[in-house]
Amino acid sequence: MTIRLLYHDPDCPGAVSPFDEGILGIVRGDEVSIACPYLGLEYLRRITRLTKSWRLLTDLEAWLRSLDHRQRERVYAFLIENRYLIRHYPLLHAKVVIGSHSAMVGSANFTSAGMRQRTEVSVRFENEPQVQELTEWFDVHWRRAKELDEVLLKRIAVFMRFLPKKRVIEDLTKPFISRPLTKQLARLVQLPGGPVIQNGTSRHSDVYFNFGHEEGWREWDDARRFKFISAGGGRWYSAPLATLVPGDRVWVYARPYGYVGVARVTGFAEPASRFQVEIQGGEVRPIMEVVKSPDGYHNKDIKNLKRCEYFVPVRWLDSKPVEGGVKGSDLFTNRRIICRPTSPIWRSTLRRLKKEFPNHSQ
Protein backbone atom coordinates (compact mmCIF):
# COMPACT_ATOMS: atom_id res chain seq x y z
CA MET A 1 0.00 0.00 0.00
CA THR A 2 1.33 3.43 -0.92
CA ILE A 3 -1.17 5.74 0.71
CA ARG A 4 0.02 8.76 2.66
CA LEU A 5 -1.81 11.19 4.94
CA LEU A 6 -0.86 14.85 4.50
CA TYR A 7 -1.23 17.50 7.21
CA HIS A 8 0.72 20.30 8.85
CA ASP A 9 2.76 19.20 11.85
CA PRO A 10 1.60 21.56 14.65
CA ASP A 11 5.01 21.17 16.32
CA CYS A 12 6.84 22.39 13.20
CA PRO A 13 5.21 25.64 12.04
CA GLY A 14 7.00 27.13 9.08
CA ALA A 15 8.00 23.75 7.63
CA VAL A 16 7.50 22.98 3.93
CA SER A 17 3.80 22.49 3.16
CA PRO A 18 3.04 18.76 2.76
CA PHE A 19 0.11 19.69 0.49
CA ASP A 20 2.32 21.67 -1.89
CA GLU A 21 4.97 18.94 -1.83
CA GLY A 22 2.30 16.33 -2.55
CA ILE A 23 0.81 18.26 -5.46
CA LEU A 24 4.19 18.94 -7.07
CA GLY A 25 4.98 15.25 -6.87
CA ILE A 26 1.81 14.52 -8.87
CA VAL A 27 1.82 17.26 -11.50
CA ARG A 28 5.42 17.48 -12.70
CA GLY A 29 5.69 16.33 -16.29
CA ASP A 30 2.33 14.54 -16.22
CA GLU A 31 -1.16 14.84 -17.72
CA VAL A 32 -3.12 16.27 -14.80
CA SER A 33 -6.79 16.68 -13.91
CA ILE A 34 -7.70 19.22 -11.20
CA ALA A 35 -11.03 19.75 -9.46
CA CYS A 36 -11.44 22.57 -6.93
CA PRO A 37 -13.91 25.43 -6.35
CA TYR A 38 -11.54 27.90 -4.68
CA LEU A 39 -8.15 28.60 -6.24
CA GLY A 40 -5.37 31.14 -5.98
CA LEU A 41 -4.53 32.20 -9.53
CA GLU A 42 -0.81 32.45 -8.84
CA TYR A 43 -0.80 29.04 -7.20
CA LEU A 44 -2.74 27.57 -10.12
CA ARG A 45 -0.21 28.99 -12.58
CA ARG A 46 2.59 27.65 -10.38
CA ILE A 47 1.41 24.04 -10.65
CA THR A 48 0.05 24.00 -14.21
CA ARG A 49 3.34 25.26 -15.67
CA LEU A 50 4.98 22.06 -14.40
CA THR A 51 2.52 19.75 -16.14
CA LYS A 52 2.65 18.10 -19.54
CA SER A 53 -1.04 19.01 -19.93
CA TRP A 54 -3.89 19.92 -17.58
CA ARG A 55 -7.67 20.25 -17.19
CA LEU A 56 -9.59 22.13 -14.51
CA LEU A 57 -13.11 21.60 -13.17
CA THR A 58 -14.33 24.41 -10.94
CA ASP A 59 -17.45 26.17 -9.73
CA LEU A 60 -16.90 29.55 -11.37
CA GLU A 61 -19.58 31.31 -9.31
CA ALA A 62 -17.98 30.16 -6.04
CA TRP A 63 -14.49 31.00 -7.29
CA LEU A 64 -15.36 34.51 -8.46
CA ARG A 65 -17.36 35.29 -5.29
CA SER A 66 -14.27 34.48 -3.22
CA LEU A 67 -12.20 37.18 -4.98
CA ASP A 68 -12.17 40.96 -5.01
CA HIS A 69 -12.89 42.85 -8.24
CA ARG A 70 -9.23 43.16 -9.28
CA GLN A 71 -8.59 39.45 -8.79
CA ARG A 72 -11.76 38.64 -10.76
CA GLU A 73 -10.51 40.57 -13.76
CA ARG A 74 -7.26 38.59 -13.74
CA VAL A 75 -9.15 35.31 -13.43
CA TYR A 76 -11.47 36.29 -16.29
CA ALA A 77 -8.45 36.93 -18.52
CA PHE A 78 -7.07 33.53 -17.45
CA LEU A 79 -10.39 31.89 -18.37
CA ILE A 80 -10.30 33.38 -21.85
CA GLU A 81 -6.67 32.38 -22.30
CA ASN A 82 -7.38 28.78 -21.24
CA ARG A 83 -11.05 28.41 -22.19
CA TYR A 84 -10.63 24.91 -23.65
CA LEU A 85 -8.87 23.60 -20.53
CA ILE A 86 -11.44 24.78 -17.97
CA ARG A 87 -15.08 23.80 -17.44
CA HIS A 88 -17.75 25.09 -15.07
CA TYR A 89 -19.42 22.61 -12.72
CA PRO A 90 -22.03 24.26 -10.44
CA LEU A 91 -21.88 23.30 -6.74
CA LEU A 92 -18.58 21.48 -7.12
CA HIS A 93 -16.86 21.20 -3.74
CA ALA A 94 -14.26 18.46 -4.31
CA LYS A 95 -10.53 19.21 -4.01
CA VAL A 96 -8.71 16.69 -6.16
CA VAL A 97 -5.49 16.45 -8.17
CA ILE A 98 -5.08 13.40 -10.41
CA GLY A 99 -2.03 12.30 -12.39
CA SER A 100 -1.17 9.13 -14.29
CA HIS A 101 0.30 7.29 -11.30
CA SER A 102 -0.84 9.25 -8.24
CA ALA A 103 -3.63 11.43 -6.92
CA MET A 104 -4.51 13.59 -3.92
CA VAL A 105 -7.91 14.12 -2.30
CA GLY A 106 -8.56 16.30 0.73
CA SER A 107 -10.08 19.32 2.35
CA ALA A 108 -7.50 21.94 1.33
CA ASN A 109 -8.39 24.53 -1.31
CA PHE A 110 -5.65 25.33 -3.79
CA THR A 111 -5.02 28.76 -2.35
CA SER A 112 -2.20 30.18 -0.27
CA ALA A 113 -4.25 29.78 2.91
CA GLY A 114 -5.25 26.23 2.02
CA MET A 115 -1.70 25.17 1.23
CA ARG A 116 0.11 27.09 3.93
CA GLN A 117 -2.06 27.97 6.92
CA ARG A 118 -5.43 26.30 7.42
CA THR A 119 -5.67 23.06 9.37
CA GLU A 120 -6.39 20.58 6.57
CA VAL A 121 -6.00 16.88 5.88
CA SER A 122 -5.47 15.19 2.52
CA VAL A 123 -4.76 11.67 1.31
CA ARG A 124 -2.29 10.90 -1.48
CA PHE A 125 -2.46 7.63 -3.44
CA GLU A 126 0.50 6.12 -5.32
CA ASN A 127 -0.21 3.46 -7.96
CA GLU A 128 -3.45 2.43 -6.26
CA PRO A 129 -6.73 1.34 -7.95
CA GLN A 130 -8.27 4.53 -6.57
CA VAL A 131 -6.13 6.60 -8.98
CA GLN A 132 -7.90 4.99 -11.95
CA GLU A 133 -11.26 5.29 -10.19
CA LEU A 134 -10.70 9.02 -9.60
CA THR A 135 -9.70 9.47 -13.25
CA GLU A 136 -12.98 7.87 -14.32
CA TRP A 137 -14.87 10.06 -11.81
CA PHE A 138 -13.25 13.18 -13.25
CA ASP A 139 -13.97 12.16 -16.85
CA VAL A 140 -17.67 11.64 -16.10
CA HIS A 141 -17.97 15.09 -14.53
CA TRP A 142 -15.85 16.70 -17.26
CA ARG A 143 -18.28 15.48 -19.91
CA ARG A 144 -21.24 16.87 -17.93
CA ALA A 145 -19.59 20.22 -17.13
CA LYS A 146 -20.26 23.40 -19.08
CA GLU A 147 -17.70 24.45 -21.67
CA LEU A 148 -16.51 28.06 -21.69
CA ASP A 149 -18.16 29.03 -24.98
CA GLU A 150 -18.93 32.62 -25.99
CA VAL A 151 -22.36 32.51 -24.34
CA LEU A 152 -21.04 31.32 -20.98
CA LEU A 153 -18.14 33.79 -21.04
CA LYS A 154 -20.65 36.65 -21.55
CA ARG A 155 -22.75 35.36 -18.66
CA ILE A 156 -19.65 35.29 -16.47
CA ALA A 157 -18.83 38.91 -17.40
CA VAL A 158 -22.39 39.99 -16.49
CA PHE A 159 -22.25 38.03 -13.23
CA MET A 160 -19.02 39.80 -12.29
CA ARG A 161 -20.58 43.25 -12.83
CA PHE A 162 -23.29 42.48 -10.26
CA LEU A 163 -20.84 41.35 -7.59
CA PRO A 164 -19.61 43.85 -4.96
CA LYS A 165 -16.00 44.98 -5.16
CA LYS A 166 -15.08 43.09 -2.01
CA ARG A 167 -15.06 39.33 -1.60
CA VAL A 168 -18.43 37.71 -0.95
CA ILE A 169 -16.78 34.68 0.68
CA GLU A 170 -13.54 35.34 2.50
CA ASP A 171 -10.84 32.74 1.91
CA LEU A 172 -9.26 33.58 5.26
CA THR A 173 -11.65 35.36 7.63
CA LYS A 174 -10.57 37.65 10.44
CA PRO A 175 -10.78 35.91 13.82
CA PHE A 176 -13.65 36.99 16.06
CA ILE A 177 -13.61 34.40 18.84
CA SER A 178 -9.87 33.92 19.31
CA ARG A 179 -6.55 34.45 17.60
CA PRO A 180 -5.03 31.76 15.33
CA LEU A 181 -2.98 29.13 17.15
CA THR A 182 0.01 30.08 15.02
CA LYS A 183 0.77 33.01 12.74
CA GLN A 184 3.64 31.23 11.01
CA LEU A 185 2.90 30.07 7.46
CA ALA A 186 4.13 26.81 5.98
CA ARG A 187 6.64 27.30 3.16
CA LEU A 188 5.96 26.31 -0.41
CA VAL A 189 8.50 24.03 -2.07
CA GLN A 190 11.20 26.25 -3.58
CA LEU A 191 11.39 25.84 -7.34
CA PRO A 192 14.90 26.53 -8.66
CA GLY A 193 14.88 29.24 -11.30
CA GLY A 194 11.75 30.73 -9.80
CA PRO A 195 11.16 33.50 -7.28
CA VAL A 196 12.90 33.16 -3.95
CA ILE A 197 9.81 32.80 -1.78
CA GLN A 198 11.28 33.36 1.65
CA ASN A 199 13.64 36.29 1.22
CA GLY A 200 12.87 38.26 -1.90
CA THR A 201 11.96 38.22 -5.55
CA SER A 202 15.25 37.77 -7.39
CA ARG A 203 15.72 34.76 -9.67
CA HIS A 204 18.53 32.23 -9.39
CA SER A 205 18.82 29.77 -12.27
CA ASP A 206 22.07 28.10 -11.12
CA VAL A 207 21.49 25.16 -8.81
CA TYR A 208 24.04 23.32 -6.65
CA PHE A 209 23.65 19.52 -6.67
CA ASN A 210 25.46 17.11 -4.38
CA PHE A 211 26.02 13.81 -6.22
CA GLY A 212 26.87 10.93 -3.86
CA HIS A 213 29.41 9.06 -6.01
CA GLU A 214 30.56 5.75 -4.59
CA GLU A 215 32.04 2.91 -6.61
CA GLY A 216 29.77 -0.12 -6.60
CA TRP A 217 26.86 1.96 -5.36
CA ARG A 218 26.11 5.20 -7.26
CA GLU A 219 28.52 5.69 -10.17
CA TRP A 220 29.44 9.03 -11.74
CA ASP A 221 30.31 7.24 -15.00
CA ASP A 222 26.70 5.98 -15.16
CA ALA A 223 25.40 9.52 -14.70
CA ARG A 224 27.58 10.86 -17.51
CA ARG A 225 26.79 8.02 -19.90
CA PHE A 226 23.04 7.81 -19.32
CA LYS A 227 22.48 11.54 -18.68
CA PHE A 228 21.00 11.70 -15.20
CA ILE A 229 21.52 12.90 -11.67
CA SER A 230 20.02 10.98 -8.77
CA ALA A 231 19.54 10.60 -5.04
CA GLY A 232 17.73 8.21 -2.73
CA GLY A 233 17.64 6.46 0.61
CA GLY A 234 14.81 8.48 2.10
CA ARG A 235 12.65 11.49 1.36
CA TRP A 236 15.19 13.86 2.95
CA TYR A 237 17.50 12.96 0.07
CA SER A 238 15.10 12.39 -2.82
CA ALA A 239 12.31 14.92 -2.19
CA PRO A 240 14.46 17.94 -3.21
CA LEU A 241 14.71 16.46 -6.72
CA ALA A 242 11.02 17.31 -7.19
CA THR A 243 11.98 21.00 -7.22
CA LEU A 244 14.05 20.64 -10.39
CA VAL A 245 12.28 21.66 -13.59
CA PRO A 246 13.36 21.54 -17.25
CA GLY A 247 15.78 24.35 -18.08
CA ASP A 248 17.43 24.55 -14.66
CA ARG A 249 21.23 24.62 -14.87
CA VAL A 250 22.77 22.25 -12.34
CA TRP A 251 26.38 22.37 -11.12
CA VAL A 252 27.27 18.91 -9.83
CA TYR A 253 29.59 18.43 -6.87
CA ALA A 254 30.85 14.97 -5.83
CA ARG A 255 32.41 14.90 -2.37
CA PRO A 256 35.39 14.72 -1.92
CA TYR A 257 36.38 14.94 -5.59
CA GLY A 258 35.04 18.43 -6.32
CA TYR A 259 32.84 19.80 -9.09
CA VAL A 260 32.54 17.25 -11.89
CA GLY A 261 29.91 18.56 -14.30
CA VAL A 262 27.26 21.07 -15.35
CA ALA A 263 23.97 20.16 -17.03
CA ARG A 264 20.56 21.38 -18.11
CA VAL A 265 17.59 19.55 -16.62
CA THR A 266 15.46 18.03 -19.40
CA GLY A 267 12.68 16.32 -17.43
CA PHE A 268 11.24 15.61 -14.01
CA ALA A 269 12.28 13.27 -11.21
CA GLU A 270 11.10 9.67 -11.55
CA PRO A 271 11.54 6.67 -9.21
CA ALA A 272 13.94 3.96 -10.35
CA SER A 273 11.04 1.64 -11.19
CA ARG A 274 9.81 4.06 -13.89
CA PHE A 275 12.99 5.74 -15.13
CA GLN A 276 14.23 4.64 -18.55
CA VAL A 277 17.23 5.69 -20.64
CA GLU A 278 18.26 5.43 -24.25
CA ILE A 279 21.25 3.20 -24.98
CA GLN A 280 23.34 2.76 -28.11
CA GLY A 281 21.18 2.18 -31.17
CA GLY A 282 18.22 4.11 -29.79
CA GLU A 283 16.88 1.27 -27.63
CA VAL A 284 15.16 2.36 -24.42
CA ARG A 285 15.87 0.31 -21.28
CA PRO A 286 15.01 0.55 -17.55
CA ILE A 287 17.85 2.31 -15.75
CA MET A 288 18.56 -0.58 -13.36
CA GLU A 289 19.22 -2.90 -16.29
CA VAL A 290 22.13 -0.83 -17.64
CA VAL A 291 24.00 0.67 -14.68
CA LYS A 292 27.38 -0.73 -13.61
CA SER A 293 26.20 -1.77 -10.17
CA PRO A 294 22.68 -3.26 -10.29
CA ASP A 295 22.83 -3.84 -6.54
CA GLY A 296 23.43 -0.13 -5.97
CA TYR A 297 21.06 2.83 -6.22
CA HIS A 298 18.96 1.44 -3.33
CA ASN A 299 17.78 -1.31 -5.65
CA LYS A 300 16.53 -3.45 -2.76
CA ASP A 301 14.02 -0.63 -2.05
CA ILE A 302 12.96 -0.10 -5.68
CA LYS A 303 9.29 -0.73 -4.81
CA ASN A 304 9.40 1.57 -1.79
CA LEU A 305 8.66 5.09 -3.07
CA LYS A 306 9.93 6.64 0.16
CA ARG A 307 13.37 5.00 0.07
CA CYS A 308 14.06 4.20 -3.57
CA GLU A 309 16.46 6.09 -5.85
CA TYR A 310 14.98 8.94 -7.90
CA PHE A 311 16.47 10.00 -11.23
CA VAL A 312 16.32 13.33 -13.09
CA PRO A 313 17.18 13.36 -16.83
CA VAL A 314 19.72 15.98 -17.89
CA ARG A 315 21.70 17.15 -20.92
CA TRP A 316 25.36 17.44 -20.03
CA LEU A 317 26.89 20.75 -21.05
CA ASP A 318 30.35 19.83 -19.78
CA SER A 319 31.75 17.19 -17.43
CA LYS A 320 34.97 15.64 -16.13
CA PRO A 321 36.02 12.24 -14.81
CA VAL A 322 35.48 12.07 -11.09
CA GLU A 323 39.25 12.03 -10.46
CA GLY A 324 39.55 15.36 -12.30
CA GLY A 325 37.00 17.26 -10.27
CA VAL A 326 37.46 20.96 -9.59
CA LYS A 327 38.08 21.58 -5.90
CA GLY A 328 39.58 24.09 -3.52
CA SER A 329 39.03 25.67 -0.14
CA ASP A 330 37.71 28.81 -1.84
CA LEU A 331 34.79 26.97 -3.51
CA PHE A 332 31.24 26.72 -2.21
CA THR A 333 30.20 23.31 -0.85
CA ASN A 334 27.14 22.12 1.05
CA ARG A 335 25.96 18.77 2.42
CA ARG A 336 22.41 19.30 1.16
CA ILE A 337 21.41 17.45 -2.02
CA ILE A 338 20.15 20.66 -3.66
CA CYS A 339 20.46 24.30 -2.74
CA ARG A 340 20.19 27.69 -4.41
CA PRO A 341 23.07 29.70 -2.93
CA THR A 342 23.15 33.49 -3.00
CA SER A 343 26.33 34.10 -0.99
CA PRO A 344 29.44 35.90 -2.29
CA ILE A 345 31.41 32.63 -2.17
CA TRP A 346 28.87 31.03 -4.52
CA ARG A 347 29.21 33.89 -6.98
CA SER A 348 33.00 33.58 -6.92
CA THR A 349 32.65 29.79 -7.26
CA LEU A 350 30.54 30.25 -10.39
CA ARG A 351 33.13 32.56 -11.91
CA ARG A 352 35.80 29.89 -11.50
CA LEU A 353 33.55 27.02 -12.62
CA LYS A 354 32.60 28.83 -15.82
CA LYS A 355 36.29 28.91 -16.70
CA GLU A 356 36.79 25.26 -15.77
CA PHE A 357 33.71 24.15 -17.75
CA PRO A 358 33.89 26.30 -20.90
CA ASN A 359 30.79 24.74 -22.49
CA HIS A 360 28.54 25.71 -19.58
CA SER A 361 26.41 28.12 -21.62
CA GLN A 362 25.32 25.72 -24.38
Name given to the CATH homologous superfamily of the largest domain: Endonuclease Chain A
- What proportion strand? 15-25%
What is the CATH architecture assignment of the largest domain? 2-Layer Sandwich
CATH topology of the largest domain: Endonuclease, Chain A
The CATH class assignment of the largest domain is Alpha Beta
Strand order of the largest sheet: 1-7-6-5-2-3-4-8
What is the number of independent domains?
2
Low-confidence stretches: 193-204
Order of helices and strands: EHEHEHHEEEHEHEHEHEHEEEEEEEH
**Helical content class:** 25-40%
Please explain how this structure is put together.
By secondary structure, the protein is an alpha+beta fold. It has 2 domains: 160 residues, Endonuclease Chain A (Endonuclease, Chain A, 2-Layer Sandwich); 151 residues, ph1033 like fold, CATH 3.10.590. The chain is 26% helix and 21% strand. Helix 4 packs antiparallel against helix 7. The longest helix is centred in the middle third of the chain and has 16 residues.
Could you give a quick summary of the protein structure above?
This protein is of the alpha+beta class. It contains 10 helices and 17 strands. It is 26% helix and 21% strand.
SSE layout and pairing:
Elements: E1 3-6, H1 18-27, E2 31-35, H2 41-48, E3 53-58, H3 60-65, H4 69-81, E4 86-88, E5 96-98, E6 102-106, H5 112-116, E7 122-126, H6 129-144, E8 146-147, H7 150-162, E9 206-210, H8 220-226, E10 228-231, H9 235-238, E11 249-254, E12 258-265, E13 270-271, E14 276-278, E15 284-286, E16 310-319, E17 338-339, H10 344-356
Helix pairs in contact: 4-7
